[in-house]
From TrEMBL:
SUPFAM superfamilies: C-terminal domain of ProRS, Class II aaRS ABD-related, Class II aaRS and biotin synthetases, Nucleotidylyl transferase, Ribosomal protein L25-like. This is Aminoacyl-transfer RNA synthetases class-II family profile domain-containing protein. Signal peptide: none annotated. GO terms for biological process: glutamyl-tRNA aminoacylation; prolyl-tRNA aminoacylation. The lineage of its organism: Eukaryota, Metazoa, Ecdysozoa, Arthropoda, Hexapoda. It comes from Macrosiphum euphorbiae. One of its GO terms (cellular component) is cytoplasm.
Amino acid sequence: MSNAPEKDLAGLEQQLAAPDLQNTNAKIQGSTSVLKSKKTETKKNEKAPKQQKSVEDNSKQQGKFVELPGAEMGKVVVRFPPEASGYLHIGHAKAALLNQHYQLAFNGRLIMRFDDTNPAKEKEDFEKVILEDVEMLKIKPDIFTYTSDHFDKMLDICENGMLKEGLAYVDDTDGDKIRLEREQRIDSINRNNSIEKNLELWKQMVLGTEIGIKCCVRAKIDMQSANGCLRDPTIYRCKPESHPRTGDKYKVYPCYDLACPIIDSLEGVTHCLRTTEYTDRDAQYYWFCDALKLGTRSNETRPYVWSYSRLNMTNTVLSKRKLTWFVEQGHVDGWDDPRMPTVRGVFRRGMQVEALKQFIVAQGSSRTVTAMQWDKIWSLNRSIVDSIAPRHTALLLSNSNKENVVLSYPPVEVVVENVEKPYKIDNVPKHPKNSQLGLKNCVWAAPTILINYSDAELLEVGRRATFINWGNLLITRIERNQNNNKIERIHAVSDLENTDFKSTVKVTWLPKTDYSESEEVLPILVPVVCVYFDHLISKAVLAKDDDFKQYLNTENSRWELQMIGDSELKDLKKGDVIQLQRRGYFICDSTYQPYNIHTGKETPLVLFNIPDGHTKSETSITTSNFKDKKSKKKESIAVATTKTSDSANTKKVTKLGLEVLKISENLGEWYSQVLVKGEMIEYYDVSGCYVLRPWAYRIWELIQEWFDARIKRKPLNIRNCYFPMFVSQGALEREKEHIADFAPEVAWVTKSGETDLAEPIAIRPTSETGMYPAFAKWIQSYRDLPLKLNQWNSVVRWEFKHPQPFLRTREFLWQEGHNAYATREEAERDVLITLGYYEYVYKNMLAVPVIKGKKTEKEKFAGGIFTTTCEAYVASSGRAIQGATSHYLGTNFAKMFDVHFEHPDTHEKSFVHQISFGMTTRTIGVMVMVHGDDRGLVLPPRVASIQVIIVPCGVGVSTANEVKDNLTRTCLDVCNRLKGDSLIETDDENDNSVIQHRNSSLMIRADTDLRDNYSPGWKFNHWELKGVPLRLEIGPKDLDRNQMVAVRRDNGDKLTIPLEGRPNDGGNDKMVVRITELLNQIQQDMYNKAEQEMKENVVICRKWSECAAQLAAKHLLLIPFCGRPICEDNIKRDTTLDDGTADVGASTMGAKSLCVPFEQPKGADILKSNDQCIHPECGQPAGSFTLFGRSY
């Protein structure tokens, strides 16, 4: 993320002006350009030089990473070349992460290349899957390529560089015989073919004839070599299958052994990392390099092969063929089954990316091949999830039929005799050591509570037990069944004043809900299914000759426990990680759904157990009084009393935070609270008008600064101006069609004091009618064109619908541009260029993805020819919102206002072609809706007024003054370094990106919170509510360790950053560089998250019967549509649910057209010639896929 966005916009204007309206986002296309810059050649010596010092030297536990031979900082290029024939497993993850490690360690480049040399295995679906897996691993390749990008080059090399040079020959020997001859070191009968015969057979292969199919090309190396890989390996084979990318263009395909060295050299790879199982092929790799003189020509390199150990895991197979067998045979639910060692499988089971990275780092680049135990990786994972997992409670109802699970009895009732009615227990933290997770909302004590039967067995009459998050209860009586002696009920009295918890039994519990009496008081308990998993393979390490099918454990590898959980579990989302107290860690796989009138039942919450790295079976925690000794010592137990003393704490308590969750039914209330408590707006005493506070207005300023600077430069060269806000009635009357859409919203001034005006004056709803009379005066000749003007102003539209700040207001700020041209081509070009600028604002500044397209005839700008738009999507409401528009007005307005010029050739009167384009403060509202969460605003770094807030913490009354002073000085010093205040001041600032450059130094918008009347916790919540992207926490202990803790607002991740000193040589400050990189990552991660939400919710719908259900699922629909306004009205009418709801913003509103996307579905989803408009009453041919949905 650079200071100036110009780099990202290189060539944007030319691309946007292309007739096919192509998207400017970087995509993986059929032929991806490879690295063009000249790479430094590595040493040609095949022997590795002496191993050098480790690349990294940090305090984390990690293996030794040996520095790559011949590596130079900034010049290392590595590659990750998966075959698109399956899902990535953790072995691939090691390869990818190891390459990424050296990419980052040497500030180099990482190429991701799809090895698509085998058309029989290559599938486009797997390409998409692999790209998603790489994204899940948070790996960011610098470039994407395909082996097939170089097929023509390799054909030329094979024919002219090898066959004609006698380095290869064509062999029509049977495949089995070839294998036998290679084993026996016998030359093929074709080894000494003439060049002419080889070329003749090669031609047959290229054509794919019957003769050619029987042939292959073999490299002529050494049939007597002790290394079998050098015994004339096959380098080309004839395959008649169609290739997913190249179709039937080729009939011959290179083998991996030939393709690798050639493409590595062509793409500038300096170091080829691969596992030790390929060691025998290294000599072959270098033979091709030498024989083909790779690296001796410009833009080529001679790669160095570096081996590392393959990842082997106990009780696991990593062969794609074997994993495919598990899927095809139905032993698992799919490639993402939690028992599968795929990237998706382990992530679905609760593996965190950071744990996987730490696991790979711990191994380093070792060449020792060992079978690693899963306990190691899950133990690392536990240390990560422990700090982020909110604590919840669940009680066991029944076991599954798993053999080694002891049968459990239902929960036991505990009657608390001195508790007369239910009451809520306040101030119970969701996590005992992480206050940032907040407090629980629904912890209720009740006269009757439920506990696990296993816990009931531990209770004794006359002894106290600690009921977690409540306090001590004294057991007074235990009732048992006379026949089987099983406990049926327990009686107790609360003894909350007793705080001796050291020698008591710890019990998890839930209030008993009596639906007949307490439904309105007590929240319901949530049915939960806890799913546990074991290995698919029963044998730890399979021998080479072992048949894995003989060691299947599929029948006993999955079992379920039926449980009942606390009411807050109903709010879990898929992927949320939690801890069930005294049971372990779990990840939400399927959310709870309340009682459904159609099915007659509720859908339980499904939780997958996350292994914690203990070798013992997870079942043990379901049959015994599980206690985590380590956490027992560290985690305090929240205790509540029945009464709260107002005088217990004299410190002022300020109500902070949101009272409504974003995911709740009242999204509008959440939005209002976020804006007010986040200090974005203040309500005004005129309905529909709002005060923009500095925190919000700065966002608009940053957008304005970038956009204003951009449009003033080539190719637009627009100038700013200002027209009055008042428009005469006569001007409005001149364009009745245009103003018709705004007529109900036009505000009029009718009085001056107590005197009626002679004629009402309108307050502009838009400026065409006010500006174009002036255009008619200024434009007389073609020499006056083009005329390009822009103004930043406010407009008034007296909305009658329910107003919402930023989204629908009666007065709003905007930018509006109005240009006039001599030709239509010029006008249409600039329409697309300005639309591209709007896309850039949303994507690169606000981190919001948009869909670019053309408005339908019904929805276009009144009086114009066509309207282009950027449409955003708000996942929480399932509704779209128009982000910005750019219109081609044609000559319509010019004719109405007589804006003409004398044509230079015909000398006749010609009307100008006009465009208009606009963007409003609605951009801010869209950003808030897309990124905000239940803790408040989440601001992208590029538009945050404060990007980094520094908070001193860990200071108490007993802290020495000198320590406090030192801490304050450090905080101020860090802030000054981030802001660059110590440098020479200049008025030339550009705050539109995360960093600014001043005197070659990095600049960040930072501030410190040194207020002493608020606690650090209050400050944390305050700045989180305001959405500051990054918080730096510095305490006395941090000073001792020379570090600070960075906390990301977008995902809550915590990182430790060294407090390095200022550079003495005038170079970049390493600390500032690290913070800058982190802000860049936050910006990108926020966009990626929003983009994924949009992709998941834009669906193709070809059947009318499915539209209502898709809309109810909060989807936007790409539907075949004829484009007729009457049909559009019918679609909106027939997708509206008539339930008496007055608010059209409710989930009952019908679908309206949003745009015809420039990027239409491709491949199997392409619009077919016989496709008809989706509405059943239409019957007209569909002109395109059109985006429909509910909207703001």
